């Protein structure tokens, strides 16, 4: 079962900790005497056979870096059957008999197609700042993104309380509100808007009105995919109803994707990178590797992609209670 050669790619939105996972894959493979080809630019590099040799020294000094040394890209060619067939043929020609794909939902869907359609042997590693992939309680990058957003919100709180202002802070999360809810709880936000739940603006206005009576400042954390259309729109609606409010908006954007990974992300990435290689040697295939209840766990791709991960329900109760 030991692969003759492993290829490794990162795809989709980069996430802090991807480099730590790359390092762990390369060094674990080297430990077992398996050569590794890095694929540049995600699936696009697979279609174009853009491979580089990766030895233990090629991944030195990257565990602490955000982004991905293998880069990421969109690939129109990979969306076609012909493109995917070329990708599989390129792997074969390079003597590669197993592929490791580091990324989130989109990446693992592409990986799933490579297995079912082209018969590629493959393991996925759960990595996206959005934490919206099944098969892992947390995905690589989520913790760092939350901490980055939190630091920014803490700073905004300083200036908000100096003026008695209300800040609408938009964080990433196109389809899910994990970052919004977790940073909201951690920052002591007064309100959080997430895509998963339609919150009534009435409720938000009520909270802000009550709070403006005795509180120095208010923070509303808004996930970019919230159903009202983002922080600017929401702030406009609230301002129209409550012109007396002194409101400012801050969109944190891509700064949440970069930066040095936290301890949590580095350790998780190291565990998952090593587990992916160990798993391939044991004969695991067509699985996403993640951490569930503290343990490394292999989940079938179809299951991991289809899983609808939900924000911990108690957080929805906690937030208004703690912001009273
Ligand atoms: O990585 C996921 C994500 O952060 C989403 O929350 C966000 O909508 C998206 O990436 C933006 O990515 P890009 O600008 O690369 O398309």
Written overview of the protein:
This protein has helices spanning 18-31, 42-47, 81-93, 105-118, 142-163, 178-187, 201-214, 231-241, 263-282, 301-306, 313-322; strands at residues 6-10, 36-39, 51-54, 98-103, 122-126, 166-171, 191-193, 218-223, 247-251, 287-292, 295-300. The protein has 324 residues and is an alpha/beta fold. It has 2 domains: 6-141 and 261-306, Rossmann fold (3-Layer(aba) Sandwich); 143-257, Rossmann fold (3-Layer(aba) Sandwich). It has a 7-stranded mixed β-sheet with strand order 3-2-1-4-5-10-11, sandwiched between helices. The protein has a 4-stranded parallel β-sheet with strand order 7-8-6-9, sandwiched between helices. Strand 4, helix 4 (105-118) and strand 5 form a beta-alpha-beta unit. Helix 1 (18-31) packs parallel to helix 9, helix 5 crosses helix 6 and helix 6 (178-187) packs parallel to helix 11 (313-322). The protein is elongated, with a radius of gyration of 22 Å. The mean pLDDT is 96. 6-O-phosphono-beta-D-fructofuranose binds next to loops. The site of 6-O-phosphono-beta-D-fructofuranose (F6P) has 9 residues, from loops.
């Amino acid at each position: 079962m030991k692969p003759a050669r492993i290829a490794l790619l990162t795809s989709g939105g980069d996430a802090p900790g991807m480099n730590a996972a790359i390092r762990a894959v390369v060094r674990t493979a080297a430990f077992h005497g398996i050569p590794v080809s890095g694929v540049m630019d995600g699936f696009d590099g697979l279609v174009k056979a853009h491979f580089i040799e990766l030895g233990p020294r090629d991944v030195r000094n990257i565990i602490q870096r955000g982004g991905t040394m293998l880069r990421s890209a969109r690939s129109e060619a990979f969306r076609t059957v012909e493109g995917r067939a070329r990708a599989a043929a390129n792997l074969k020609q390079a003597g590669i008999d197993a592929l490791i794909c580091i990324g989130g939902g989109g990446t693992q869907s592409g990986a799933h197609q490579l297995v079912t359609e082209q018969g590629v042997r493959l393991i996925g590693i759960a990595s996206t700042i959005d934490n919206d992939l099944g098969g892992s309680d947390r995905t690589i990058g989520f913790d760092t993104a939350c901490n980055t957003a939190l630091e920014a919100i803490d700073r905004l709180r300083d200036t908000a309380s100096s003026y008695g202002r209300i800040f609408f802070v938009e964080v990433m999360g196109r389809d899910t509100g994990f970052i919004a809810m977790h940073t909201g709880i951690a920052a002591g936000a007064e309100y959080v808007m997430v895509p998963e739940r339609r919150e009534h603006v009435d409720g938000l206005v009520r909270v802000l009105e009550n709070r403006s009576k005795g509180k120095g400042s208010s923070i509303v954390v808004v996930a970019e995919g919230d159903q009202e259309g983002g922080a600017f729109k929401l702030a406009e609606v609230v301002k129209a109803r409550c012109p007396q409010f002194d409101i400012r908006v801050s969109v944190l954007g891509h700064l949440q994707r970069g930066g040095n990974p936290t301890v949590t992300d580095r350790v998780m990435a190291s565990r998952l990178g090593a587990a992916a290689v160990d798993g391939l040697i044991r004969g695991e295939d067509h699985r996403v590797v993640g951490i569930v209840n503290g343990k490394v766990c292999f989940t079938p791709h179809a299951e991991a992609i289809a899983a609808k991960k939900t924000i911990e329900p108690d957080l929805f109760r906690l937030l208004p209670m703690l912001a009273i």
